[in-house]
Amino acid sequence: MMPVWAEVEEHFAHDGAWRDIIVPDSGPAEWQLFLAAVGAGFWKFEYLVDGERKPLPTSVGELSHDNQRLLRIGVLASGLNCHLWTDSEMELDFIPTDVSGQSDLDDLGEFCIRLASTVGKSVAVTYENFHDAAILKYSPDGQAEYVGKGLSNG
User: How far apart (Å, rounded) are the C-alpha atoms in residues 148 and 151?
Assistant: First the structure.
């Protein structure tokens, strides 16, 4: 069962920070699975290199670490931003106020469940850079759980 907006809305209030979507203990193999899913059309997306729209690479090995890369996934009002730092754990970020009701929360959850299923690992939504304290967790088998009771940003 998906989390209920009334239980989680405090975690998406404006506080000047973003929220992160992370895949703990992920690396190049999970990045490759994610790139393949994006390329297969699982989500609408825009891929930018140094601010210019480019075709999405099909391999993690094609990503240059010298450029400013941004993969924006078409979920939520402003999208989910991924900077493709493929040598570290998978992370996307989003503006918390883009989640402003049950429908947005469900859209976020559907993305996270599909991501978890794609890479075969659990996915967490956290406060920006507070990856050890999850707000929401999603598993590859489609389970969703609100685990952030008592958490606050900072």
Answer: 5
DSSP, collapsed to helix, strand or coil, labels residue 126 as strand
3-class SS string, 80-115: EEECCCCCCCEEEEECHHHCCCHHHHHHHHHHHHHH
Q: Residue 127 has what pLDDT?
A: 95
**Please, which residues bridge with residue 144 across strands?**
138
Q: Token digits for 9?
A: 């809305």
Report d(CA 17, CA 43) in Å as an integer: 25
User: Model confidence over 33-57: pLDDT tens digits?
Assistant: 999 999 999 999 999 998 999 999 9
* pTM of the complete model: 0.94
